[in-house]
Specification:
mainly beta, eight-stranded antiparallel β-sheet, 0% helix, globular
């Protein structure tokens, strides 16, 4: 997806609870945005690999940081898929429960930077009339280089990994669930794209289709 990104304008959704999930295979070990909810240059939420190959979940409103989590470990494997989940619920009383990051079904608990959002914080996501980006940040910068599949966003709930994947009984490996059923509903802005190909048509039933913002989206067979 180098030099390629997707975008969609949002409706009114839940700014306190949402879950992002994607199966990704890195191709370029450089800063690259997986997802960004954007309202202005001083108000946004993003999930990205930073220049040190760590995963960052970051949010800012009105120029003030709302959250910043950077994993301690790095992600340099370009030969296999990672399943990345970021599940947020700012209504949780315990700060560490407000942002949960899972890689291949296992929750990340070690962070080199740790700053959780305040209780009941409204994040810059699911804001009516503003844009979500996949594969780059606003302004077509810091493109993600690699593959993406089964990119999902659930608007309104903080989901568990078992919604999206399961452990193979024979190999013990974390594997994809090709049918995703949210615990409650997909929500206003919920979507599922890049399912079994390069289609930007929403497969959640919400008709929240994405558009190709730039570049070329190529279908690649992998496993």
């Amino acid at each position: 997806m180098a030099n390629t990104y997707l975008s969609r304008t949002q409706g009114t959704g839940n700014r306190q609870k949402f879950t992002y999930s994607a199966w990704i295979k890195r191709g370029a070990l450089a800063e690259g945005f997986l997802f960004q909810g954007y309202t202005s240059t001083s108000s946004f939420v993003h999930i990205k690999f930073d220049g040190n190959n760590k995963l960052q979940v970051f949010g800012k409103t009105g120029g003030s940081d709302q959250m910043d989590l950077v994993t301690s470990r790095v992600f340099r494997d370009t030969g296999a898929f990672y399943h990345v989940i970021v599940a947020i619920d700012t209504t949780q009383s315990t700060d560490t429960n407000r942002v949960k990051v899972y890689i291949n079904g296992v929750q990340e608990t070690s962070f080199s930077t740790t700053s959780y959002p305040s209780v009941n914080a409204n994040l810059e996501i699911n804001v009516s009339g503003y844009t979500n980006y996949i594969g780059a940040q606003y302004g077509s910068q810091a493109y993600y280089g690699g593959l993406m599949s089964y990119v999902a966003h659930i608007d309104g709930t903080q989901e568990l990994p078992t919604i999206f994947g399961e452990t193979d009984a024979t190999t013990g490996e974390w594997k994809i669930k090709t049918s995703i059923t949210p615990s409650v509903a997909w929500g206003t802005n919920g979507f599922l794209i890049l399912k079994d190909g390069n289609s930007l048509t929403d497969q959640s039933g919400n008709s929240n289709n994405f558009a190709l913002g730039g570049g070329t989206l190529t279908k690649t067979e992998d496993c």
